[in-house]
Amino acid sequence: MPTRWPELAVLELLAAVGEHGSLGAAARAVGMAQPNASRSLANLERNLGLSLVERHPRGSRLTADGMVVAELAGRLVEGAAELLATAGALRERHSARLDLAASLTVAEYLLPAWIAGLRHAHPELDVRVRVENSTQVFELLAAREIELGFVESPSVPRSLRSRTVARDRLVVVVAPSHPWTRRTHVTADELAATPLVTREAGSGTRSTLAEALAGSGADSAAGTGATVGGAHAASGVRELAPPAMVLSSNAAVLISAASGAGPAVLSELAVRPWIARGDLVEVPVEGLALDRRLRAVWRSGEPLSAPAAALLGQLGG
Length: 317
Description:
Layout: H1 8-20, H2 23-30, H3 34-48, E1 53-56, E2 59-62, H4 64-95, E3 97-102, H5 104-109, H6 111-121, E4 126-131, H7 134-142, E5 148-151, E6 160-174, E7 186-187, H8 188-193, E8 197-199, H9 204-220, E9 227-228, E10 231-232, E11 245-247, H10 250-258, E12 264-267, H11 268-277, E13 281-282, E14 285-286, E15 291-299, H12 306-315
Parallel strand pairs: 3-4, 3-5, 7-14, 8-11
Antiparallel strand pairs: 1-2, 5-15, 6-12, 6-13, 6-15, 9-10
Helix pairs in contact: 1-2, 1-4, 6-12
């Protein structure tokens, strides 16, 4: 019995001996030096326990056993060539696919145009998009289920790289019948103390608002420990009041706010048409910065694929 699997290179050599009729021509055909070819065939014969090649001054030819083994060797070489060709095709297919995830605001209002621009330049590209909140985008990157993500959250895990690709502003909106429409503004304390119609925990919109309120609280009420309009400002940090309603989509938040369920804080991209139609009214908030950066995120220490780099290059930053 053979002591080990034959090497594919020597099987290719043996098949070439049968095709070209000599060891020298076969060695040249497969790109092997003739001394190495002779040693390789001798090792194969020893491993199989068969005489495969008859050597004589005018050259080498296959024995009867060698012809049988050479035919089988040729099939194996063809199978290996098919394997390599298939692997190459699979690589090309993967290189022409881009797996993305984006938080809701980016996915609804920005990403479609970005992808359209990418597909215009690369029509063969297969782009797959998952719509998740920012926290889930980070989880998908960690699990290697996507290559590139887009988030709205104010911070990014240290294990990821990021680049600002757009800027946005959160807007406080209420139904036209809400009492706040009769005021020039509300304070950050009032906003923090008011139950809001809001997105779910983990959304970039909700975390941006919480961080903005915490920061403004540190500026205006640091160390007071006072309760202002129902919002506790101990150690200078405002905490949001329990929400009036928690919803998982911008559309649901907009509809609920317009129906009078309570104030909402959403991206300007989402509320702009609702304000233009008069379905919602923007309410300024005094002393509260609600500008934010929208960022692309990807795994640190790993080069981006050509499609991902093309998309990121298209967006600048």
